Amino acid sequence: MKVVIYASARRHGITDAEIRAVLEHPIVRYRLAPRTGPQAKLLRMVGDPDGGALIEVVVDRVGGEELHVFHAMLLTAAVAREVLEATGGNLDLSDGVSRSQRTQREKR
């Protein structure tokens, strides 16, 4: 499957390698309701590419053969709550919520 990573997905300091790792081995993956149009096939995936911080990635599945990644960042509390709801309360990722942005984490 072809992966297209937009510049907007890199805005929060997540690397292409980290994005690809989340896509290949997500902890959770579920559909999102599209805001822009009913033809969009949006998926949110959350993973820990290096066994460290959890990363959330949002893709649009285009034509069944391409994933267009337009969002990636460290896991937020809102998405951790969304995951809990999407999994019927079976997956609680709240302990993995980022307390800071990537750029602040890298300065340590």
UniProtKB/TrEMBL annotation:
Name the record gives this protein: Uncharacterized protein
Organism: Dietzia cercidiphylli
